[in-house]
Fold these 3 entries.
Entry 1:
Amino acid sequence: SAKLYVQVAKLIDSILGAYLYLLENTI
């Protein structure tokens, strides 16, 4: 349960990081 939460948190963090990275490079 706790491990699943950590995996989901890491996944969301990586996706948000990539999204912000693309935004900064696009503009």
Note: The helical segments are 2-26.
Entry 2:
Amino acid sequence: MESAVKNAWLVIEALPEKLDLKISMMGQLDQHAPQDCILASNSSSYKSRLMLDKVDQKRRLRVCNMHYYMPPGNNVVELMTCGETDTDVLQFLKSKLEDAGMTPAIARKESTGFIFNRLWAAVKRETLLIMAEGVSEPKEIDKLFMTMFKDNPVGPCGMMDAVGLDTVAFIEDNYIQERHLDPTARDWLQKNFVEEGKLGAKSGKGGLYPPGETTKSSKDEGGHHDNLAAPRLYFLDIGMGSNITDMTKATISGKIMTASADGSNVRTLVSNQAMPDGIDVSISAGKLFWTNMGKSPSVNNGSIMSSNLDGSDLQTIIPEGKVHTPKQIKIDHENKKLYFCDREGLRVHRCDFDGGNHEVIIQTGDFNTADIEDQTKWCVGIAVDAKAGKLYWSQKGPSKGGQGQIFRANLQMADGDTASSRSDVELLFDKLPEPIDLEFENDSQTLYWTDRGEYPLGNTLNSAYVGPEDKEGGQVKTLARHFHEAIGLKIDAVNRHIYTTDLGGTVYRFNMDGSERKKIYETDGAYSGIALAHLH
């Protein structure tokens, strides 16, 4: 033994599960291994603290459990302290195991059975009890188990988050009452999560996982436990991509499309639209609303459209001639109002869901005059903060011109004001490359926008705090770059994600800080507006 371990940095004992043998072996290893050598036990049932009788006090900082699982093809290894193990030792071993292609996990405290064996013990115990009570038989149990968990992309924590932790607690409560089980786990869940509003994937506060990390893309298939929080996407193909071969029909080739949150199950809901640009969705009304810029932006022939969520019952709610070149559209869900910008029309409009009570609330010029040539007056993106009664909009400026602006005003005009002479308009940001679509996130009081301007500040996703306290000094943060004419923007407040589109034909998803950039869908289309809805 002495020669075998004299130069070792790690020794793992794997003797039969007899404690006296392990105590003796650990004592011998302590005598013969180098002072800085780590001594680990592969035991699955004994805590390494029980093997320390003959181990020097100094060595105990380098003693731990290091349990490999069977069969050998299983690459899971669990690490656990002996009660005195230096935490750096466990992190060091975790790193080395990862380098070797293993999947290590560190038990946060001493636990008989570590992590997985405790989980497996509960499965075994309940399986045996089901048979003991005559509820089912082995073949049926195994068939159900293998069917339910075959290719399942999440574990029990992700599955509970997807179902909803309030639902989990309710089910556990029923089991506790009927079967007289220990309520400790239910009580812990209720106190630390349910009462804090951390209900899982359906909650912006997250659950067992942090906000957004539970989201798994819906496959629109039965049997998936991770579908519940994934939104349905709705986005627009403006009709100008390379997928359009007959350019004489380009201006009437726009499409309203829908897809699962991973970009699968894509289908067209509505076709033959006149350059659709902005879209939003109302679940309560069961409606999609979108803007059509019209066959020619220089002509006053835009329109506002609606349909059911499946694309049926197509309606024109604001006809051609009543809006010039409508762009982004936003719903005020509380007041059941539509807000939309009118680029060459130099206006911001508001109306009811059926097009009634149509009014102009912002007017930057007269499109029947030379004003229409001044692109600094062109209104494009829009966001609504109904809670604070505020409206945000962008005026993009000339293409790649660096004259873009973002403004704010009240939803309701003051007495004596008109759409063209409002006293409450605030200029928030100036000299932007070319700001396009906007989104307002209420909890953080943050405004987000896409910009299709010139590099390096253009073709970006940006954000800035716009709340009542000037705590960031109006600082603009660039969250993501290198789009191909960035346009559409939508925040998934449930899962804390940002979705964007560009005219290069790509739908992207990001975390709220711009990290974890992912292409959800990419074709040779040209995508403008995007919306989403949680249909479950």
Note: The CA atoms of residues 91 and 106 lie 8 Å apart.
Entry 3:
Amino acid sequence: LPFVLSLGTADVSAAVSPTPENVTVNLHKLKFTSAPENQINNGTELTFPNSEPLNGVEFNVYDITATYYPSKDTAVPADATPFASVTTSGEGLANLTLPGKSEGKDAVYVFVETPKPGVETSPNNVLSLPFYNPDSSDPDKPLDTIHL
């Protein structure tokens, strides 16, 4: 029974370094033959035993910055149009570049997987920028390449 790993993010209240103008997001879709151990997604590429890349899975990306800041609501509005759409290929990977800001604010995006027969759909992923790796040698510098 395949299943996927999802990312949850927390708010960062004070940024030491400015949000990058653009961020590259590397979205990984994996099929698991057994449940992986819980790992904290720090934005770097993670390795999961008992997994294999899953190609042909589409994700719609929504910019929810305008609705997120007033209420911290991560739901995609019913009338929302995707900001971008990407499909995994090669090694179960979809790449895209997203603006770090939206309407002058740190951008917030939701990645919504399009259901596909025979594939367990991932929960929505929320990416709130800037994204920091607390385990890096410079934990106050936001990542400009993020793996989800």
Note: The domain at 22-147 is CATH 2.60.40.10 (Immunoglobulin-like).
